Amino acid sequence: MSGPVRHxxxxxxxxxxxxxxxxxxxxxxxxxxxxRGRIDGLTHVEVGADVSxxxxxxxxxxxxxxxxxxxxxAYGSHPEHLRVRQELADLRIARFQVDYFADSDVPAFTGxxxxxxxxxxxxx
Length: 124
Description:
Layout: E1 5-13, H1 18-33, E2 42-49, E3 60-66, H2 69-76, H3 79-88, E4 92-101
Antiparallel strand pairs: 1-3, 1-4, 2-3
């Protein structure tokens, strides 16, 4: 299958105080938004910070879209992406990811070694 691929990542971030967590969310948002226009095939970047305040919520979500699977795979080793990952490495305490073809319900990346993935089932 080809076509656009949506890459969604959610993080829980470090911080002992509400201000430290807010600062961490702002740093993640600025870092990923700074990738706009810098990586071929990255067609959309949106970063949102949780406003629910529930204890089981993630702090930040990245919704990005790539022209195709090859563009997403190239992103994984792109120097700008690696720089951002390194810059933010000490902030994250948990990470969740979903990659899927934006135009289809067909499961994406069967057998891909792009990232180690964990499945999260609603309600668990």
